[in-house]
Structures are given as C-alpha cells and as structure tokens.
Amino acid sequence: MMENDMFGHTMWAGHWLWMLVIAIVVVIPACRICQRTGYPGWMGVLILFPVVNLILLYFLAFADWPADKKGDRNG
C-alpha cells in the first residue's frame, strides 16, 4: 500500500543518512579512546556491533592499557 507513496524512497535514504551520521558520531570517539589507551584505533569500529560493543567497553575498562605501561598518559 505504501509502495506508491512519494516519500517512500526519501525516507529510506534519510534513514541511511541518519545511521551514517550516528555511526560517525560514535565511531570517531571510540577510535580515539582506543588509540589513547594504547590499542589500535580500528578497535573503535567494534562499537557498532551489538554485544561486541559491551565487550569492548568492559575490556577497555578493566584491561591493563599499553599506554600506561609506556608512560604515554594523555590526561
């Protein structure tokens, strides 16, 4: 019934645009946090995956950071 709606395709494109914005807003800080703790920045992309994001947060919260061992503290 909604296939003939003129807003059908724009809402779909808007949905993907919104998801891209949210992904950028979340992934960039996660990558920076991973880099500052001494882990590779690509680990921040894991924040996009359900359940894996919780594992990443707990890992970062309770693991020994390589940056602490090197003395490269940023704060």
UniProtKB/TrEMBL annotation:
The answer to keyword Transmembrane applying to this record is yes
Q: Which UniProt keywords apply?
A: Membrane, Transmembrane, Transmembrane helix
Domain of life assignment = Bacteria
Q: Which residues cross the membrane?
A: 12-31, 43-63
Q: What is this protein called?
A: DUF805 domain-containing protein
Which organism is this entry from?
Marinobacter orientalis
